[in-house]
Design a protein that fits this description.
299 residues; alpha/beta; three-stranded mixed sheet
Length: 299
């Protein structure tokens, strides 16, 4: 390990956090990780990282702390309290929260961390599991320019498109907009798939030609096989997209922006979750359209 690179603590080794932390190890960083499941810590150790038994232990000697957990409550749980990041990281450390949470949670975290001499960036990502594995994520950042500049080498090991969007919370606002666009896009693709199949068209051929024109999208490229194979193993769970649609509808209401189509898709995501599909990939919005169209849905 190169001694001149900052020491990194990584909290949260899930579908996104595991491959991302491993990409940092590949880039030469010394990574100490903690997460709730021991098997995930073991995976990090096998990849060349160091395991930690607690948040406090993980962050104690870190120059940079990166968090990647599901939602605002988990960010608050690991950040605050006697065993949290703010009480145990050293003053001057840089905390990069890559979770997708409410913009206000990010603003509050930055303010509270400042009292401890800890700098914060909100840096949520887009690109899903594949983007995390391939290190081609889009990373939308909120915070100060100098902290962003300092974080750049680390972020470049994780993603391809890295943009400072404004002050604290701005990264989360842009991520919320991202989730709105993705959900509406998946829903439109799902409706097209059922329409095409019920019309007797070769679905694979149709999706290929559609993806070559104006209807083409990263969503269609990434999710085409999910639709074709009805493979809904989670890259990004409906449960999490449900959470994100709540963030964007709430944030839009706060600023007085109307989301008429977004509101409908938020309800479709919610209904899919209510039908027990919350653990499936968000491409499973197809199942909702199938049910509405009277098609048999695979168990």
């Amino acid at each position: 390990m190169s001694n001149n690179l900052p020491k990194v603590a990584w909290i949260g080794l899930g579908i996104m956090g595991s491959p991302m932390s491993e990409n940092l190890i590949k880039a030469g960083y010394d990574v100490t990780g903690h997460t709730l499941e021991q098997a995930k810590i073991d995976r990090l150790v096998a990849a060349g990282g160091t395991g930690a038994g607690s948040v406090a232990e993980a962050v104690r000697d870190a120059d940079v702390v990166i968090t990647m957990v599901p939602a605002s409550p988990q960010v608050e749980a690991i950040a605050y309290g006697p065993d949290g990041i703010l009480e145990n990281a050293r003053p001057g450390a840089l905390l990069i929260d890559m979770s997708s949470i409410t913009p206000q949670t990010s603003v509050d975290l930055a303010k509270n961390a400042k009292d401890k001499g800890i700098r914060v960036l909100d840096a949520p990502v887009s690109g899903g599991e594949a983007g995390a594995v391939e290190a081609v994520l889009s990373i939308m950042v909120g915070g100060g320019q100098s902290d962003f500049d300092e974080a750049q080498p680390i972020l470049r090991a994780l993603g391809r498109t890295i943009v400072l969007c404004g002050p604290h919370g701005s990264g989360q606002t842009v991520k919320a907009a991202n989730q709105l666009i993705v959900a509406v896009n998946i829903q439109a693709c799902a409706e097209a798939v059922v329409f095409l199949e019920k019309s007797g068209v070769d679905l694979a051929a149709a999706l290929d030609v559609l993806n070559g024109g104006l209807a083409g999208s990263t969503v269609l490229t990434r999710k085409k096989d999910n639709f074709l194979k009805r493979d809904f193993a989670p890259g990004f769970r409906i449960d999490l997209h449900h959470k994100d649609m709540g963030i964007v509808t709430d944030a839009a209401r706060n600023v007085g922006a109307a989301l008429p189509v977004g509101a409908v898709v938020a309800q479709l995501v919610s209904s899919l979750r209510a039908q027990g599909d919350g653990g499936l990939d968000h491409s499973a919005l197809l199942r909702s359209v199938e049910r509405l169209s009277g098609r048999p849905v695979q168990a």
